[in-house]
Amino acid sequence: MDFNNNNKRNELILAIDIGGTSYKGALVNKNGEIIYRYKIKAADYGSNEKFLLTIFNLISKLSKKTKLNNQKIIAMSFSVPGAIDTDNGIMKYSNNLKLENLNFKKELIKKYNNLPIFMLNDANAATLGEARKGIAKNYANVVFLTLGTGVGGGIIINHKLYAGSQFMGAELGHMSIDINGKLCTCGRRGCFEAYASAKALVNYTKEGLNKYKDSKMWDEINNDINNVNGSVSFEALKKHPNDLGAKEVVTKYIRYLSEGILNYCNIFRPDIILIGGGVSEQGDYLVKLINDYCKDYNYGFKSTPIPIIKTATLKNDAGIIGAAYFALDNLK
Amino acid sequence: MDFNNNNKRNELILAIDIGGTSYKGALVNKNGEIIYRYKIKAADYGSNEKFLLTIFNLISKLSKKTKLNNQKIIAMSFSVPGAIDTDNGIMKYSNNLKLENLNFKKELIKKYNNLPIFMLNDANAATLGEARKGIAKNYANVVFLTLGTGVGGGIIINHKLYAGSQFMGAELGHMSIDINGKLCTCGRRGCFEAYASAKALVNYTKEGLNKYKDSKMWDEINNDINNVNGSVSFEALKKHPNDLGAKEVVTKYIRYLSEGILNYCNIFRPDIILIGGGVSEQGDYLVKLINDYCKDYNYGFKSTPIPIIKTATLKNDAGIIGAAYFALDNLK
């Protein structure tokens, strides 16, 4: 029996994805495989202390598991929403968590003093996860766009996460595509996020419903406009390709989304553009619509390769797996 | 005497910057210093053959010089306008040179069979030159924008040139900032190039002159609108800060330019944004105007570092020096 090899197989990363509604913890092996997971509902804390206690509790649940199995945790890594100082392990600001300037790494080191500790922004973690273990794993240069409440994402250059100066880069939702357009929450006008988020899609759908009282979209929501979500227009159009309302909504959304994607094609000429977040559940149907729009506007026309566009595969595990890879990359 | 060291000092890159009006050749040492240069006016050729003869002639002039000085050319490297297949050394298409699918590398190898040969797009070459030998040399992540007839540029990630899939990336002028806006030569609407090029600035200046018949801009052009160039509005405003016409033109141009720059700040969060091309001759005056515009709109406000903005320093030598560094990087 090769003990050395066995030891290596038992070396694990304890990875935690801190989300708005839950904290997902997992033990991840060196192949990026989740071998055990444990989830806690996000606590209704009002202080840094309560937040820390919840995290310590989750760590304790996970580490107990490893002791039973004679496994060893070699690092901890965290996917964190908001502005993170990755180098110093400080959670500078998180709107979701209502935390400010929490020296998270210092608190963790106090308690787990022998372990290397890493943390990175959740969008970057998801990007790294998708790029290493997901459908983009064989591509060197990846632009990852998440279409959820907002538009986030990340950049992989030559298989490595690119996060810009002070790890504050890749705010891919805050590229203006219409400088005279809608006011964005960031203070600028016309941000990609304001036009291509699931939230924007919901608004287009509501407008479409109000305009087309006979649209089949009404069937999707049981005639109650409060039931609108990002899939309503797509689902109605799949079933009824001639529905004017659904067609108008989807066409509008695809135009905005594709214009942003075309920008990223021209800027990065990536090997692949990967789409995640709620809207990505439309899968190949969505990809076909984007490709149909983009094929006529790609810069350089036929002499320029059109990037492959795919929807993300890891979904809710992307953050945990990405956090684990971030630790593995930086342990080397 | 250290012969080995001396030999190394005498190892040179023969670099050629193929431009629209001239071909600039140089011998560049391993420190990126030009030690000899020779320029030929661009020939009025109608064929690949004539183009090649002109290049061979330039190479011959430069290599004769090295023989006199007991120096050794260790590689040739070319900065080429248009679409280049860098891996295979094929000039796929150049609008300026009226060349198509010229297997440039193959022709060069036929004649200079012992030398490694490299070539890259002129915007990428200039980016690499500025990033290694120019004012950006101490920064890891650089966005370089050239504001000339068009808007070009390039990207440096972690001190290395990023050129995307098949070296076709970083068309930084073809990011739409107004998808309902002006039609661009590329077929899309609202490209950054259509708003922030020197050509766009010339158009704004002409509009301003026609609107403000008493503007001091008229003095700058001797009352002849055919004399308008990209510096007219800036020069008038420097001398007459209250001139309404000059102010309107410069304000309009700075807004478009800054909105594009803000996009690149949010996408890359680079350590530095470097501005080259004709408009960059406005130097610190230009940079101050951009900074004043950008400071209120940088994503994340005070928690996000605003990149340093500077104007490029190598100017016409950037392409040659960048081509030389591209060879040096790839010889290693």
Task: Report what the structure shows.
- 2 copies of one chain form a homodimer.
- Chain A has 2 domains: 3-129 and 317-331, Nucleotidyltransferase, domain 5; 138-312, ATPase, nucleotide binding domain (Nucleotidyltransferase, domain 5, 2-Layer Sandwich).
- The two termini of chain A are 26 Å apart.
- In chain A, strands 3-2-1-4-8 form a 5-stranded mixed β-sheet, with helices on both faces. A 5-stranded mixed β-sheet of chain A has the order 11-10-9-12-13, with helices on both faces.
- In chain A, 39% of the residues lie in helices and 22% in strands.
- In chain A, strand 5 and strand 6 (90-94) form a beta hairpin.
- In chain A, helix 6 (198-211) packs antiparallel against helix 9 (244-268) and helix 8 packs across helix 9 (244-268).
- Chain A has 11 helices and 13 strands.
- With 332 residues, chain A is an alpha/beta fold.
- Chain A is globular and about 60 Å long.
- The interface between A and B is large, with 47 and 47 residues.
Summary, kept brief:
2 copies of one chain form a homodimer. Chain A is built from 11 helices and 13 strands.
